[in-house]
Hints:
With 114 residues, chain A is mainly β. Chain A has strands at 4-7, 10-14, 19-25, 30-38, 44-51, 56-59, 62-67, 72-77, 86-94, 103-104, 108-113. Chain A binds chain B through residues 4, 31-32, 34, 36, 41-46, 49, 51-52, 89, 91, 93, 95, 97-107, and chain B through 2, 4, 6, 31, 33, 35, 40-43, 45, 48-50, 55-56, 88, 90, 92, 94, 96-108, 110.
Amino acid sequence: KQEVTQIPAALSVPEGENLVLNCSFTDSAIYNLQWFRQDPGKGLTSLLLIQSSQREQTSGRLNASLDKSSGRSTLYIAASQPGDSATYLCAVIPYMEYGNKLVFGAGTILRVKS
Amino acid sequence: ETGVTQTPRHLVMGMTNKKSLKCEQHLGHNAMYWYKQSAKKPLELMFVYSLEERVENNSVPSRFSPECPNSSHLFLHLHTLQPEDSALYLCASSPQGSGRTEAFFGQGTRLTVV
């Protein structure tokens, strides 16, 4: 059974810092990995999608890497801003699962202090 | 806006009530999902619909009854719920394919069972 773990559970940093969020998964047989952002009480906003054949994806100040063989992904946020404060969720689509089912980690709660 | 709309945004219901949650997507996707997000737990998949057919029921109690009348609409019918069913219910959609596709989520319905 696929399990996804995110470390740290919570992170508080001053504005301007570069930071790394970690995601690990137990079964490397995945189709892709997706990073989401969730603001309190709201839905999920897709940040980056990395296909299993890719090593990384970039969008603005965000960079996500994927090492499928070791079951790890990292989300790098450059020059953090207070508006980046949210919960960041990592999810994988297990291989051979019908319907693109996502398996989620518990998330990292990020607070960027001004 | 992600293109996935959920209504209502908030719902309070008694344990003997019957209510329905609605999800609508205008992204041309043909797979839709219900997820449950409880406090301090990872997002859990409830149901998957692909091409309007239910392809997965993730051991969800029968007091939750999904309906997918067409590829753009998904409902979750609720009856005789328990207080522990209070949670954020999230709808998602994606193109149906080999798994190399991005999922988009709605803003969720915050359900409180009293």
